[in-house]
Design brief:
13 helices; 7-stranded mixed beta sheet; alpha/beta; 9 strands
Length: about 350
């Protein structure tokens, strides 16, 4: 899967165990802010009927491939298409000019392959789920040869070694259908769709600070939409990054927005993941969840991002200032209508 800030890759065990403690006999789980789709993919693998939602188009493609699409339906067809795409003659176009020349997120050789493959995909007239699987394969192939530190806000001054390697397509890890019924992916604003959700449990992992996922992963949004938008700045972001703002990236707006989502949901159980460095305090979140009878909080220690652990340096490479705390906590708020034993949900060893 793609590199993704805030990804719950390292916390899938705890998130899955908490949900299993609430729903030991299976059921439907909705992941309302699906992002990279790692959680939804993990829950589908556990046998839950999953509903993944996100408002960004690239995230919707990821959820369609990893949650909605079933392996037995699409794997063979997608494999054949990926083999065909590998034979397409490279042809530099909008993607190469924008993200390899005006910006340097990808080497031009790989940019020309991305351009040619993406144009071919658009010409194929593929079914929705199949197109999503193929687009995710292309996105992930590009991610493996990018020249960034994981965000599309800036790029390396010198090409990262992986950026010089030829891009290779791989079939995403599609999962078989679950017994409980079809999984699905939707693309909607969380506040708007919350009253429509029907699930035994809703998992909420909203943005928790000022960092916009659309701004951080604008290359993927443009790759999936293939609308070749006007761009701006050193990073060549889509111009609509300036307009498509989320209330969850605003300190004053996040509280009312998340409260509106929680109050709009008609689900007996909620699990909320929120970092202790986020805009909302533990007390604020507990108050929002108090409509359910039982609220428990698990605090999982995590090492802070690399820059925080290294410390601050000046342009000469000299350390200035002091390093703050070296870890933070991911809090899992488990709000239920019935008492639940969470003693088996243990943090992964450091």
């Amino acid at each position: 899967m793609i590199k993704y800030i805030g990804s719950k890759r390292a916390l899938l065990g705890q998130v899955g165990a908490a949900i299993q403690a609430v729903l030991p006999d299976g059921g439907q789980v909705c992941d309302l802010f699906s992002g990279s789709a790692r959680v939804g993919h993990h829950l589908k693998k556990m046998g839950y009927r999953v509903w993944s939602n996100d408002h960004n188009t690239y995230a919707h493609a990821l959820a369609t491939a990893y949650v909605q699409a079933d392996r037995e339906v699409w794997a063979d067809k997608a494999t054949a298409i990926l083999a065909e795409l590998e034979t397409v003659t490279p042809q530099a176009g909008w993607f190469t000019r924008t993200f390899c020349e005006e910006a340097r997120f990808f080497h031009p050789d790989n940019g020309a392959r991305i351009d040619a493959m993406r144009e071919r995909i658009e010409q194929m007239g593929l079914e929705h789920e199949l197109k999503a699987v193929v687009l995710v394969a292309l996105m992930e192939a590009a991610d493996r040869v990018d020249s960034t530190a994981g965000l599309q806000m800036a790029y390396m001054k010198q090409w990262a070694p992986r950026a010089l390697k030829p891009m290779k397509l791989r079939l995403p890890e599609l999962l078989p259908a679950v017994v409980g019924g079809p999984c699905k992916a939707t693309q909607a604003d969380a506040i708007d769709i919350a009253p429509e959700i029907e699930a035994d449990l809703v998992y909420l992992d909203p943005p928790y600070n000022q960092h916009s996922y659309l701004a951080n992963y604008h290359c993927w949004e443009s790759l999936v939409l293939w609308d070749k938008p006007e761009t701006y700045g050193v990073a060549r972001k889509r111009v609509d990054v300036r307009q498509r703002k989320s209330a969850f990236n605003s300190r004053p707006a996040i509280g009312p927005a998340l409260r509106g989502v929680i109050e709009g949901l008609n689900a007996p159980n909620l699990v909320v993941s929120f970092n202790d460095e986020g805009y909302l305090s533990r007390e604020e979140l507990e108050a929002m969840l108090s409509g359910r009878k039982y609220v428990q909080v698990l605090e999982i220690p995590r090492p802070r991002y690399v820059g925080a652990r290294i410390g601050i340096h000046n342009l000469k490479g000299e350390k200035v200032g002091t390093v703050g705390r070296l870890q933070n906590f991911e809090r899992l708020f488990v709000a239920t209508e019935k008492p639940v034993d969470l003693s088996g949900v243990m943090p992964a060893p450091e």
